[in-house]
Amino acid sequence: MGADTEVLIVGAGPVGLTLAIDLGQKGVRCTLIERKEAPQFLPKMERCNARTMEIFRRMGLAGKIRAAGLSNHNVAQLTAAEALAIKYGKRIIPAFGGEMPVLPPGVNPSRYEHWAFDVVQFYPNAVFLFGSNWHIEIFFGPIDVDHTEVVQDLYYYRPKNAGERLSHQFFLSRGRQVFLEDMNTLEAQHGVLSSGVLSHLQLSQQEMSLMHHYKVSREMLDE
């Protein structure tokens, strides 16, 4: 590392690489270090949300990012494991395939097609996720300033044969990976705040929507 380095970036993941490119475009001298010799088998990032694409567009990379991803007509294309899980079991993944009749009458009573994208967190320490033939309950229990107990319970239909059991195991494996990805992000945010590198984080649109949901919930309870 040269003595003229202005910024040291630890970790060559999606965030570290993006930061290095962004700083380089602004003329800031930086050094990027990574402990692993090669990319890991399962990447920590598999999709880009709207805010991420805004950053890539500002950097002039949005076009290349889109070109490297799936085309529009292949977005819903199933992997081999997903195809087997759906073939031999009830549909669990993708989360929604248009099977509105399988949902209980009290869940999405209007049968709005994109209802699953609404906020599903009703209380500060409980999250409820619903899908085709399954639902997930996640509970957060603060222990102290640096530790939180997170419990995730998965519920799905009782398997009647080996094929449906295979579908369950695939869903369980994939769900565990997604859950670990989400927890990794929370741990990283906590580390940044506790280290003093940042004093606050900018809320995303989803978090602002959640705050509005809390406000509406409080007003309903007050009434």
Q: How is this structure best described in words?
A:
With 223 residues, the protein is α+β, with helices and mostly antiparallel strands. It has a domain at 78-223. It has six helices and five strands; from the N terminus they run E-H-E-H-H-H-E-E-E-H-H. It has helices at 14-25, 50-58, 62-68, 80-88, 162-195, 205-222, and strands spanning 7-10, 30-33, 126-131, 134-144, 147-156. The relative contact order is 0.08. The model has no long low-confidence stretch (mean pLDDT 77).
Short description:
The model has no long low-confidence stretch (mean pLDDT 77).
Approximate shape: globular
- Total strands: 5
Which residue ranges are poorly predicted, with pLDDT under 50 across at least 5 consecutive positions? none
Largest sheet data: 3 strands, antiparallel
Structural class from helices and strands?
Answer: alpha+beta
Mean pLDDT value: 77
Radius of gyration: 21 Å
SSE succession: EHEHHHEEEHH
Main sheet: strand order: 3-4-5
